[in-house]
Automatic annotation (TrEMBL):
This is KIB1-4 beta-propeller domain-containing protein. Residues 80-350 form the KIB1-4 beta-propeller domain. It comes from Brassica campestris (Field mustard). It comes from the Eukaryota. PANTHER family: OS07G0183000 PROTEIN-RELATED (PTHR44259), PROTEIN, PUTATIVE (DUF295)-RELATED (PTHR44259:SF93). It holds the Pfam family Beta-prop_KIB1-4.
């Protein structure tokens, strides 16, 4: 008997016909063929509560997860999931390996797989971390990046969680040790260059990396045992030639930098150029250009317009790569992006043609209820079925 068949049998004795139908549809959506062993990468973009307005974010109120499959370009709604008391009045600030990082209360912090649409196979897991650092003002209330050394689902007891706060602090937590946390204070002379930085964990180097706001330097740690973070200078080669109009566009755009590692260990630095725009629906908003640099030896970065069969996923999640050929419908040599802070929008960017394209999702019922605020949309990597 297949996993999906046994799951349906176990669910059928517990769920109403309506709820069972919704769960069956979810299974068919996420495992459409008999040869499929993983889900597609998916975009989690909102969660809504079903009920009276006064029930929003009440423990136990039924919720719907709103997803988007970029390979099929269609919406997916996972319904009838009770809202957990652990997430009441929380804010979702990022994700890694499909696990969301949530802030709530004065200094509380936790990770959970609640936003993973397959978490209903068992109950969603909630893993509290040590308290956030006690910083001046709201510095510990805002997060610019999160990363994890591995997924808690992989049952590696020593996995680490890194959180970059808006202030000068990067915190690294070891969930298996209730006393293990390390708060790195960035020196004043480099703080201004790393304040809004994203994080990435390199499986190849077994280090956390953070890119400077100018994109010319990296700051790295090897985990809790590290006492000396390393500072790396990047050297750029094969830079493209720009026309005057292109230079004006780049100079007038807001720019962010993202380091991403492919499944084979190849690293890329991505520069994302945005002109502020109000992103409406699933359009590409203010995203104007990406520039991709392939890492060669000794931190040498070479401009490229060809990353082969890979596609990159950028958003409020830790960046990741997948092979497009493993997920029919995905475009190779592309960047799938989501952002709302500066009007980045939702879309896919062809690296070869230098053009962004808005998604064209198939219509679906949007459901009823009220959307929970302060939950950042993010990409979920493929999950095993």
């Amino acid at each position: 008997m297949s996993w999906s068949s046994s799951l349906l049998l176990s669910l059928s004795s517990k769920l109403s016909p309506r709820k069972l139908a919704l769960r069956c549809q979810t299974l068919r959506t996420f495992s459409s063929t008999t040869t499929t062993t993983t889900t597609n990468p998916n975009l989690f973009y909102r969660v809504s509560c079903c009920g009276e307005k006064g029930d929003v974010e009440s423990p136990g109120v039924m919720t719907q997860l709103h997803m988007f499959d970029p390979a099929k370009e269609e919406h997916i709604i996972v319904g009838d999931m009770p809202f957990p008391k652990e997430l009441v009045e929380s804010s979702l600030v990022g994700s890694s390996h499909g696990w969301g990082v949530f802030l709530w209360g004065h200094r509380s912090l936790l990770i959970t797989d609640f936003c993973n649409p397959l978490s209903f196979k068992s109950k969603p897991k909630f893993i509290p971390l040590l308290l956030r650092p006690d910083l001046i003002g709201c510095q510990a209330e805002l997060v610019s990046g999160v990363a994890m050394s591995s997924s808690p689902d992989e049952e590696e007891e020593d996995y680490l969680v890194a959180v970059k706060f808006t202030g000068r602090v990067v915190s690294i937590y070891k969930p298996s040790d209730t006393k293990a946390a390390l708060h790195y204070i960035l020196p004043h002379n480099v703080f201004d260059h790393f304040e809004p930085s994203k994080l990435m964990y390199s499986k190849r180097d077994q280090r956390f990396y953070m890119v400077s706001s100018g994109g010319h330097h990296l700051w790295s740690w090897d985990g809790l045992e590290s006492t000396r973070p390393e500072f790396h200078e990047l050297r750029f080669h094969n830079l493209p030639q720009f026309s005057c109009s292109e230079l004006q566009l780049l100079d007038s755009s807001h720019r962010t930098h993202h380091l991403v590692e492919s499944p084979s260990g190849q690293r890329f630095l991505v520069k994302w150029y945005v002109q502020s725009s109000k992103a409406l629906g699933f359009n590409c908003g203010g995203t104007k250009r990406f520039m991709v640099f392939r890492e060669e030896e000794d931190m040498n970065m070479c401009y490229t317009e060809d990353i082969g069969d890979l596609c990159i996923f950028l958003g409020d999640n830790e960046p990741f790569c997948v092979k497009a050929s493993l997920f029919p419908g995905l475009n190779p040599n592309s960047i799938y992006f989501i952002g709302e802070a500066y009007g980045e929008g939702y879309g896919v960017y062809s690296i070869a043609t230098r053009t962004p394209r808005s998604f064209k999702p198939k219509p679906t019922s949007s459901g009823q209820g009220f959307m929970i605020r302060l939950w950042a949309p993010h990409w979920l990597p493929p999950f095993p079925l």
